[in-house]
Amino acid sequence: MLNGMLTGITTTLIPINIAMVLLGCFVGSFIGMLPGLGPITAVALMIPVTYGLDPATGMVLLAGLYYGAIFGGSTCSILINAPGEAATVATAIDGYPLAQQGYPGKALAIAAYCSFSGGTIAVVFLMVAAPALAIVAKSFQSSDYFMLMVMGLTAVSAFAGKGGMLKSLLMTVLGLMLATIGTDQISGVQRYTFGSINLLDGISFLLLAMATFALTEAMFLVLRREKVSDDLDVKSISKWSSFKVTKKEFKFILPSILRSSVLGFFIGVLPGSGGTLGSFLSYGMERNLAPPKEREKFGKGSLRGLAAPETGNNAASSGSFVPLLTLGIPGSGTTAVMLGALIAYGIEPGPRMFVDRPEVFWAVIMSMYLGNIFLLVLNLPLIPYFARLIAIPRTILVPAIFFFSFIGVYLVTFNTFDIYMMILIAVCALIMRLLGYPMAPLLLGFILGGLMEDNLRRSLTIYDGSMRFLWERPLTLAIMILTILIVLAPFIGPVIKDFFKKSLSRSN
C-alpha cells in the first residue's frame, strides 16, 4: 500500500496533473452551481476532452469534475432553494431557511467546510480500507439493497414536525407512486401514462425537484406581502456576506461532521446507493440523535441539519469510488460514466487494477486530497459574492428562478410537455405546502422508489415469489431490525430515559 501511495503522489504532483485537478475542480464547481446540471452532466461533457490525454491525467480530471460538481451543488440549494441534483435536496431543508434568516454567507461557509471535511475523511478511509470494503460491497445482494432502501425511507421521520408524521408518510407514499409512472423496464407494460406518449419515460427528477422546491418557493415570494430583500442596505449585505464560523459553532457541528463522514462513506461504498441516500440518512441520524430543543430547529435553519447532509453527501461520493476501482461496479450514475471512460482507455476496473495499472488507481485516490484543498481555496473567497444573490430584489429574483427552472428542465428533454407538467406540479405543491405537507419526503420516496422496486423484483424472482428473504438472509434481517429500531427510537427513547430517571431517584 505504501508503494502504491508513493506512486499516486508522484503521478498526481506532475504539473499537467495538478493543472487538470485544478481545472476539474473549477469547472465542476461552476457546473454544480447551475440548477439542473449535476456531476453526471459535468463528467459527460468533459469525456471527449480526455481522449487525447494520458489515462491517469484523464481520470484525475474526471474525478476533479465529479467532486467539484458535488461541492458546488449546494449553492443553489442554499440560496434559492433549487436542488438541481438529488444529493443536495437534504441540504436545502436547513440551508435555505438559514439563508433566509440573514446568514447566507455562514450557510455557504458551513457547506464548504463540511464538504471539505467529509471528502477528506472519506479519502483517508478509501486509501486504507478500499480492498477490504470491496469484499463487503460484493457480499450485498438484492434483498439487502431493498431493505437498505426501506431504511433510507425511515429518514422521513426527520422531516416530520409535531403531529406531522402522518403527513410525511403520505408524501412518501405519493413519491413512491410517482416513481412507478412510465414503462416497466422488465415487462414493457405502460403504467399510469393515461395514454400519453410524453409519460412513457416517467417523470424526471429534475422536473419534480424544480417544481416542488424552486418554483414553489418563487410563488411563495410572490404571495408574501412583506418586503423580502428589496430594502437591504450596504451594511446589512456585507454582514450577510460574512462567511465567518465561530469556534463555538464549529465545535457544535464537529460531532455531526465525524458521524456523517463515516456513515456517508460506508453508504457510498455500496453500489447504487450514492450521495443521495448518504445525505438523507445522515440528516435523519442527526435529527434522531439531537436533543429535543435542537431537534425542533431542524427544518428551520439548524446548523447540524445543514452540516450532516452536506458531509454525508461528499463522503458518499468519495466512497462510490471503492466499487468502481476495486470491483468495476459503478456506485452511482456519475461513476457509471467514468467506468465508460476507463474502458475507453483500455483499462479494466477490478481487483487486477491494483497490479496492472497502479498509477491510475492511486492517482485518482491521491488527487482527491489535492482536489479538496483546491475546492476550499477556490470557493471560500467567492462566498461573499454568492451570498449577495439573496439580496437581489424580488422583482428580479422571481423571474430569474422561473427562467432557470424552465430552461433547465427543457434542455434535458426538449419537450414543452415537461414545462406544462412542472407548472401543474408546482401549483399542487404550493397548495400542499400551504396545508402543511412537507416536500422532502415526496422527493425521497421518488428517488428511492425505482431502486426499491428493482431490488424487490430481483429478490422475489430469486425466492420464487416468497418474502422469506427478509428473515433468511442474516444481513437483510440485521438491516431490517436496525430499521425497526430507528423507527421506534423516538418513541422508546423517552420511555427508557424516564425509567432510568425513576430508578435513580428511588435508589437515592
Order of helices and strands, N to C?
HHHHHHHHHEEHHHHHHHHHHHHHHHH
| Count of extended strands | 2
Strand order of the largest sheet: 1-2
Overall outline? globular
Strand content: under 5%
Report how far the terminal alpha carbons are from each other: 56 Å
Count of spatially separate domains: 1
Mean pLDDT: 79
Low-confidence stretches: 226-238
Biggest sheet layout: 2 strands, antiparallel
Q: So how many helices? A: 25
From the alpha carbons, calculate the radius of gyration and give it in angstroms.
23 Å
Percent of residues in helical segments? Answer: over 70%
Structural class: mainly alpha
Give your account of this protein's structure.
- With 508 residues, this protein is mainly α.
- α3 runs antiparallel to α4.
- The protein contains 25 helices and two strands.
Describe what is shown at a glance.
With 508 residues, the chain is mainly α. It contains 25 helices and 2 strands.
Overview features:
508 residues, mainly alpha, two-stranded antiparallel sheet
List the helices and strands and how they pair.
Elements: H1 2-12, H2 15-33, H3 39-50, H4 55-72, H5 74-80, H6 89-100, H7 104-139, H8 142-153, H9 165-179, E1 182-183, E2 190-191, H10 205-223, H11 234-240, H12 247-269, H13 274-289, H14 292-295, H15 303-319, H16 321-327, H17 333-344, H18 353-356, H19 358-379, H20 383-387, H21 394-413, H22 416-434, H23 440-462, H24 469-472, H25 474-507
Antiparallel strand pairs: 1-2
Helix pairs in contact: 1-19, 2-3, 2-4, 2-19, 3-4, 3-17, 4-15, 4-17, 4-19, 5-6, 5-7, 6-7, 6-15, 7-12, 7-15, 7-16, 7-19, 8-23, 8-25, 9-23, 10-21, 10-22, 12-13, 12-15, 13-15, 21-22
